[in-house]
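Much of what follows relies on a compact textual record of a protein's fold. Think of the row as the fold of the chain written in a discrete alphabet. An example makes this concrete, so a full record is given next.


***
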Amino acid sequence: MAIAIDEQLHLATEIDSVCMVLFDRWCERRSVVPLAYLMYTWPIVRATLPLIERLSSTLRDLVIFHFDTLDVEEHQMIRNVIEMAEHVSYAILNFRRHSA
């Protein structure tokens, strides 16, 4: 079970790093809409399942509703965050199942 917790912490750190890059890029460009979406759910103080899922959902909404405000690299970074969030969710749910 320690592996799942270590993986969760590693992925949460990676998610935070990618979000920081997105934040810096959007601040530089003064991209208010993407910043508003990101800042609605980030930074995540404590990597809990509901908060990580909310971040993932919010970034999905950003891509769906404001696709053209993002460049190719930002789309890729967002996809990476969503994938990592899904892995964290899986690790947490799997840990809960095995520890119950």
